[in-house]
Amino acid sequence: MKRNRLKTALLGILLAATAVVFGRQALTVYGYSAAETLVLNAHVNALDRGSLLSGGFYFRGFPAVILTLHKLFGIRIFTLMRLFCFVTALLLVTGIYFLLCLLIRNCAVAFALALAPVAAAFLFPDRFPGSLFCTLPGVYGLAFLPPLIWFAILYFRQRQLLYLFLAAAAILFLAGPSAPTSVQPQETNGAISCLTNILNTEEKNTWTVVSAGDEREMIHTDGSHVESLDFLEAVEDTASAELLYIPTEDVFFFIEKRPLSGETQGLRDAFTKTGAERDMISESDAAQTLDYSAGSENYKGSARKILMAKMYAWVQKYQEMFPESCSAWYEDDEFLCVRVRQNPYRLQNFDTGFSYNNGE
Predict the structure, then answer these.
(1) Alpha helices in the chain (DSSP H)
(2) How many C-beta atoms lie closer than 10 Å to residue 136's C-beta?
């Protein structure tokens, strides 16, 4: 009994340490912090549409759990995804701890060994495997590694086919999820707060969000989405006479005044270089040229800054031209959301002739 109390107390300390190290991003960065989360959100949405093989073969257990919780309790999918990132870290550390207790039979030693990677992640964030900074279903799959090892040991000890079968099942679940790509935050807190307000206050399918892409899967059946890159390319294409229309009553433009990097490197910056520490966009950024053929690469690094600066410049001009229908809907030190209200039966033309690329 005394040994069980000690084991439980040590587990509590271990989970608390895990919460401090791996829970910070889940609590302080509202939006998705890894590219893989967006992919998983797309798979959840595909299941919701009844498509089991959208995007090819993919382990569907985790998306099915998320979709079920969403349907049963009405919690938004992107909220569940973010919280489950943190939950999977707790599951993984707990599994490792109990496996070590079984193998070593000394809970204090098992605790020290299980705590070691958590401490390493806290002390050396730029040298530790990045995937554990934003645990995702890929890391969730690693929770099946401890039982795989244990069942394998039992099989070789007792030669019972049951343990071999259980080990094979663990391998299936372990290999199912793809490994995550850990990146810097992909959304500002302002962006996710703004999106949540839109979802809670606006009527379904009457609005469109124009943004860098991360909101596309989040809004799913609630609204429409247009990529900032596609929108900007359309309004800067002075060689084309085609007019640009968006067929919804409200159009929300998401603009980062202090752009995120969108890069897959710089894990330490994901925790330290936020808010006022990031550079503000400027007119000189807007005057630079974007290579639209580079596609999504324009959402990374210096190109993202140029894109956001151009979007900000376009919004400023559009507000001057149509002040009665264009206004700031949400703004903080690093993010701006502008709403354009239009008559859905007489759509506004967003092609204002604006083009910083041509010096206008």
Answers:
(1) 2-28, 35-48, 61-73, 77-104, 107-123, 137-142, 145-158, 161-175, 189-201, 216-219, 228-236, 267-272, 283-286, 301-321
(2) 29
What distance in Å separates the CA atoms of residue 97 and residue 111, rounded to the nearest whole number? 6
pLDDT of residue 256: 93
* Cα(26)–Cα(65) distance, integer angstroms: 19
Report pLDDT for 271.
39
Which residue shows structure tokens 């109990």? 98
pLDDT computed for residue 185 by the predictor: 60
How far is Cα of residue 272 from the mean position of the Cα atoms in its chain?
Answer: 18
Cα–chain-centroid distance for residue 356?
31
How far, in Å, CA of 204 to CA of 221, rounded? 8
Percent of the chain with pLDDT over 90: 15
Q: What CA–CA distance (Å, rounded) separates 50 from 39? A: 17
Residue 120 has pLDDT above 70, yes or no: yes
Confidence band of 240 (pLDDT split at 50, 70, 90): low
d(CA 105, CA 65): 34
**Calpha distance 25→271 (Å, rounded):** 8
Query: Could you tell me which residues come within 8 angstroms of residue 62 by beta carbon, excluding any fewer than 6 positions away?
Result: 40, 84, 137, 140, 177
What's the CA dihedral at 289, 293, 294, 295 to 10 degrees?
110
Question: How far is the CA of 165 from the CAs of 98, 147, 266, 350, in angstroms?
Answer: 21, 12, 41, 61
Inter-residue contact 209 to 226 (CB < 8 Å)? yes
Burial class, 132, CB count within 10 angstroms (exposed 0-12 / middle 13-18 / buried 19+): buried
HSE-up (13 A, CA, CB side) for residue 27: 7
Strand partners, 215: none
Tokens of 161: 């086919």
pLDDT at 195: 87
d(CA 303, CA 295): 11
SS3 187: coil
